[in-house]
Amino acid sequence: MSSQDIPEENLPSEQGDAHDGAVATTADPFADPGLPPHEHRVQDIDERAAKRSERVIAFLFLLSMLATVGFIASYVALPVDKIIYVYPIGHVSALNFSLGLTLGVALFCIGAGAVHWARTLMSDVEVADDRHPISAEPEVKAKVLADFKAGAEESAFGRRKLIRNTMFGALALVPLSGVVLLRDLGPLPGTKLRHTRWSAGKLLINQNTNQPLRPEDISVGSLTFAVPEGMKEDDHDFQQEVAKAALMIVRIQPENIKDKKELDWSADGIVAYSKICTHVGCPISLYEQQTHHVLCPCHQSTFDLSDGGRVIFGPAGHALPQLRIKVNEKGYLEALGDFAEPVGPSFWERG
Questions:
Q1: Which cofactor does the UniProt annotation name (predicted)?
Q2: What is the mean pLDDT of residues 204-232?
Q3: Which of 14, 34, 207, 219 has its CA 20 to 30 A from that of 8?
């Protein structure tokens, strides 16, 4: 349908002045209506109101800082297993509740402070700008930089020092929440990685029969697993301790033992090595009688038990630690001390 077919009373008539002086005629029915008159906020005309808003924003940022400190304090002070009752939620972990509450308050106050700052103190004058090609001309670049500078001045970022400083403090403290969460990687090990439950005089207990081992219980070519005397499966820390103290025992003809230290630490050709692979800590369980090699099933690291447990293949970084043993006066195998070096995978402190 052409414009000639439209009744005259339905055609748009001339409108008043539009944005930039444009006049709407029948040839331009979609003229820019322009922006409504700008309405000043109370903070724009009353410095006392602006100061009140500034104090509110600073208070929110300070509250965020205190909440972050509370987050860190809760993380350090509250035990993991402490349970509290919170109405109407019920029984919850005190640590989880305090961490969620304090971190939520810290993040909320930063956001609320930024929003309140933008709505009350930053310039809210609407500016219309025509679209332009993507490739900017030098004049446009200069205009953008000038607009940015003007925006920075209008935000009062340099003039409202109280807001600026408290915001920097809140933003600087919040990342500490993530730093302290690294504790969830586990408690600091101290010297726990360097010690196991083995000590001088502890008997070697067969892990299958729970009976002390005698030399005659171990035949040439067999592989026997042992744990220290006194360990029980119902102990609360059994899994942690057996993961370090698990032992594998083989019997090799003394003339086939290549390493002198290994021979000195053995008893009648019976050698005891850590069962924990020195790559990522998998339990070793595959033994080849003819070569005296043991294989880790996880990543195929191979160790020679006739040559000090050294690595002959695979990604493991060092030899299996050996436990020094002897036969006591009652005819049982017993340890002469703990492992001389940490068992299991390498770690950065290991010398």
A1: [2Fe-2S] cluster
A2: 91
A3: 34
